[in-house]
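User: What would this chain look like folded?
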Amino acid sequence: VQLVESGGGLVQAGGSLRLSCTASGFTFEDYSIGWFRQAPGKEREGVSCVTSSFGSTYYIDSVKGRFTISSDNAKNTVYLQMNNLKPDDTAVYYCAVDLARLHPRLRCASTRGINYWGQGTQVTVSS
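Assistant: Here's the prediction, encoded as structure tokens.
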């Protein structure tokens, strides 16, 4: 089982980035998928999560209206489109998979129970 992330980088405030997470060894659509982030000196937090069986997605308040989580099942890839980026979005972003199929809101509430993590990709937003 492997999660490979890409798409991070340096962008000015107001800019956009799209993160990708491609899985091998299992099928994304069968489980709960999340994007988490960790800024220096802060705990890792759930940013956006999706579980296909619930037919819903979840976003933390600070990214609502700016970030969109989506998936391409044929490519077994999950994306996080990030628009109107702010300096506070600066962090290492991680893709995560939970085999328990939690509701997206619950999945994003904690890092406990995550079965697999990606390697992380740095997102830096300059002011």
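The longest helix spans residues 104-108. If you want, I can go into more detail on any region.
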